[in-house]
Specification:
The protein has helices at 3-7, 19-35, 59-72, 87-91, 103-109, 135-141, 151-162, 178-186, 204-217, 237-249, 263-267, 275-278, 283-308; strands at residues 46-50, 77-81, 118-119, 126-129, 167-171, 189-195, 223-232, 254-260. By secondary structure, the protein is α/β, with parallel strands linked by helices. The chain has one domain: Rossmann fold. The structure holds adenosine-5'-diphosphate (ADP) and magnesium ion.
Length: 309
């Protein structure tokens, strides 16, 4: 070993240099940045359907936490729970037992959407059309109904004529049946949460194929606008590889913000809360709030790009 190297004594350990300290400092500055965020909303409504025919990839978690993140920066947001399991309704603290007026009544009996919408106890800006277990039968009941693919679209259009919301998020069941088709027909944007794990991209081409079919036959304005990487575990190389692969395939579509795997995120629904209300300064809540702001800003950017053309 050369002499010069021998002489340099190792730097004394400093807590400030440890990875944990760096992460905390980083989180602190992200929280500060969020506290200073100011976003504006105009009179348009963006309708996003959160879809992925795989279960357990974070659709519902993403729906409710983005909605709450947006509400926390002043947006008025409607969540339409289209999954018979009703997990989005639960997470937003909305009662949804079988006797509650729900999206089932809208789809099957043509009740006005306004009559089934409830306000989340979390925020006056956070609205939800709940799902009940009745919706489990709707997939079959819809088959024989008139305009079976357009029923949600019609209900939503009617609602939006008299009521303004800045965002509508539709939480889809994990299948490509008539409920999901109704969501695709009612929305303009598709948001796909992708879990940073094995087989993350499996089934994605089928999903994109369905989007193309809907575009062609039912809704020309539908497009994939947003991919959100979720349940990211930075300690594993696999998560990094999946994230890189998705970014390579969809460079324009993937949000910069990544949602980490976080216990707080998974605990929140059992308290009937989003993570934004449950622990708004936790790393998972900060990530969802950042993703919400990114979605708003990308929308503004897109509008100004379109204006320039
Ligand atoms: N970022 C995350 N960190 C930890 N757990 C998560 C995260 N996102 C989702 N989960 C958990 O993973 C499970 C599946 O998520 P969910 O949103 O219900 O998926 P989907 O709606 O696609 O079926 C739930 O138990 C949820 O609490
Ligand atoms: Mg779900």
């Amino acid at each position: 070993m050369p002499d010069s190297e021998n002489k340099t004594s190792p730097a004394p350990f400093s807590f400030d240099d440890s990875p944990i300290a760096r992460e905390l400092a980083d989180l602190t500055s992200r929280r500060k940045a969020l506290a200073d965020v100011h976003v504006e909303f105009d009179d348009t409504t963006r309708v996003l359907t959160v879809s992925n025919q795989k279960g357990g990839v974070g659709k519902t978690t993403t729906t409710v936490n983005l909605a709450a993140g947006l509400a926390s920066v002043g947006a008025r947001v409607l969540v339409i729970d289209l999954d018979p399991q009703g997990n989005a309704s639960t997470a937003l603290g909305i009662p949804h037992s079988a006797d509650v007026a729900s999206i089932y009544d809208v789809l099957i009996d043509e009740e006005p959407l306004a009559d089934v919408i409830q306000t989340s106890p979390e925020s006056p800006n956070l609205l939800c059309a709940p799902s009940t277990i009745n919706l489990a039968g709707a997939e079959i009941e819809l088959v024989s109904k008139v305009a079976r693919e357009h029923r949600l679209r019609t209900a939503l259009d009617t609602y939006l004529r008299d009521n303004h919301v800045d965002f509508v998020f539709i939480d889809c069941p994990p299948s490509l049946g008539l409920l999901t088709i109704n969501a695709f027909t009612a929305a303009t944007e598709v948001l796909i949460p992708i879990q940073c794990e094995y087989y993350a991209l499996e089934g994605l081409s089928q999903l994109l194929g369905s989007v193309t079919m809907i575009q062609k036959h039912l809704n020309t304005s539908l497009h994939l606008s947003t991919i959100l990487l979720t349940m990211y575990d930075g300690r594993t190389r696999l998560a990094q590889q999946v994230a890189d692969e998705v970014r390579t395939h969809f460079p324009e579509t993937v949000l910069t913000t990544v949602i980490p795997r976080s216990v707080r995120i998974s605990e929140a629904p059992s308290f009937g809360q989003t993570v934004i209300a449950y622990d708004g300064q936790s790393v998972g809540a900060v990530a969802y709030r950042e993703a919400a702001v990114e979605i708003v800003r990308r929308g503004h950017q897109q509008k100004s790009d379109e204006g320039a053309h």
